[in-house]
Design a protein that fits this description.
GO terms for molecular function: ATP binding; ATP hydrolysis activity; phosphate transmembrane transporter activity. It comes from Durio zibethinus (Durian). Keywords: ATP-binding, Nucleotide-binding, Transport. Belongs to the ABC transporter superfamily. ABCI family. This is ABC transporter I family member 17-like. The chain is globular, with a radius of gyration of 19 Å. It has one domain: P-loop containing nucleotide triphosphate hydrolases (Rossmann fold, 3-Layer(aba) Sandwich), CATH 3.40.50. A hairpin with a 2-residue loop joins β7 and β8. The chain is α/β, with parallel strands linked by helices. The protein is built from 8 helices and 13 strands. The protein has a 6-stranded mixed sheet, with helices on both faces. It has a 5-stranded mixed sheet with strand order 1-5-4-7-8. It has a two-stranded antiparallel sheet with strand order 2-3. Helix content is 29%, strand content 23%.
């Protein structure tokens, strides 16, 4: 696969000037937006976007301990201030790709770049403050909800006031009554929202979301989705989101990457997923509808 770079308008839906087939050189018409280089295929959706790339992934590969390929040379550029959805069958490498972006596994040198810097050369704690991650199943620290939210800032020598903690709770759809509760007193859904507030307390520039609302009821799910969109619009946050919910991705994402067998086989606008051409992507979308 070639490298696919999206440059969307900050708040407008993107327009892909392709025939929506699998992103391969032979599938593109000759148009001004498409530029070939010796190594990569670049797709510039909006030449006026100058926000630059937040992440750039180059030929990222991973093999399991048993020698089974998990990622087969991922090439993708993720622009600043964009919500990118990643969908695909179970075992296709979605979470593995996500975890590479903040070094929860160590990618090879010269494969993952943040703001133009190879992430393996960055301080890992600094990287994870800048690139926050929310997992499918929350894991809270010992202590109260407030202790959890203050944990990251405390490491930087910053003490959050009660008011700042309350604002973060509100942002995560929780009220101040949770302030003094412990993790053992929370439902899984409540713990997930505390984990979101704790992540946001670090003021990340990028938010990695791995099935972030799988344990939430529909109302809380909608509230969290609203928060994600607001973070993008108000703070320019870059979001990369893995979800098995096609409808959720269509509600939230600016663009969707379809990952099959460790490869990005198609990239589409959320409202054009039905136009997927790859057979496995088609089957996945049909069964998920």
């Amino acid at each position: 696969m070639g490298k696919v770079t999206f440059s969307p308008k900050s708040s407008s839906p993107i327009t892909l000037n392709t025939n929506r087939q699998c992103l391969n050189q032979k599938n593109f018409k000759s148009k001004p937006q498409i530029k070939m280089s010796a190594e990569h295929l670049l797709l510039n959706v909006d030449d006026h976007h100058d926000g630059g790339m937040k992440f750039e992934v180059r030929d990222l590969k991973k093999v399991s301990d048993a020698g089974v390929p998990i990622l087969n040379g991922i090439n993708v550029g993720i622009p600043k201030g964009m919500i990118v959805g990643i969908i695909g069958p179970s075992g296709s490498g979605k979470s593995t790709l996500l975890r590479a972006l903040n070094r929860l596994w160590e990618p090879p040198s010269d494969t993952v770049f943040l703001d133009g810097h190879d992430i393996v050369d960055l301080d890992v704690l600094g990287l994870r403050r800048k690139v926050g991650m929310l997992f499918q199943l929350p894991a809270l620290f010992h202590g109260t909800v407030a202790d959890n939210i203050r944990y990251g800032p405390n490491l930087r020598g910053k003490k959050l006031s009660d008011e700042e903690v309350s604002k973060l709770l509100t942002l995560a759809d929780l009220d101040s009554s949770f302030f003094s509760k412990t993790g053992g007193e929370l439902s899984v859904g409540q713990a997930q929202r505390v984990a979101l507030a704790r992540t946001l307390a670090n003021e990340p520039e990028v938010l990695l979301l791995d099935e972030p609302t799988s344990a939430l009821d529909p109302i809380s799910t909608q509230n969290i989705e609203d928060v994600i969109v607001k973070l993008k619009k108000k703070k320019g946050m870059t979001v990369v989101m893995v979800s098995h919910s096609i409808k959720q991705i269509q509600r939230v994402a600016d663009v969707v990457c379809l990952l099959v067998n460790g490869e990005i086989v198609e990239v589409l606008k959320p409202d054009e997923l039905s136009q997927a051409k790859h057979p496995m992507a088609q089957r996945f979308l049909q069964l998920s509808s």
